[in-house]
Amino acid sequence: MKMNRKIRILMVEDVFSDAELVKHELSKAGILFSSRCVYTKASFIKEIKEFAPDIILSDYSLPQFDGMAVIKLTKELASSIPIIMVTGPTNEEIAVECMKEGAVDYILKDRLARLGSAVINALNKKELEQ
Fold first, then answer.
1. 25 — phi, psi (to 5°)?
2. Whole-prediction pTM value?
3. Phi, psi at residue 105, to the nearest 5°?
């Protein structure tokens, strides 16, 4: 399962090592990508407009920003961009709430093996809908 083009990934993550793990997992899955990493609302809005990502991978809890805000802002600014929550252990209610609000998937950072296929599935679904 590979993407046949380079995709743009916007990561909403405040821990550098976590962002590196995510990038490593995507590379391992054979996904060609360029990425930008943000952790504030202002930089998120800027990159949505300037970088025009194909997909957003967002941590749920950040010091100044959270996953729910990412989902709501994406709906307002670029509703066709799929969002996958990639986060540390949280309770099931948060995962369900994120999915109800519009995240296409929810992956725990300690189970990143599924990330590559989740990204490919989300982008394939987006293409089919367009």
1. -65, -40
2. 0.95
3. -160, 170
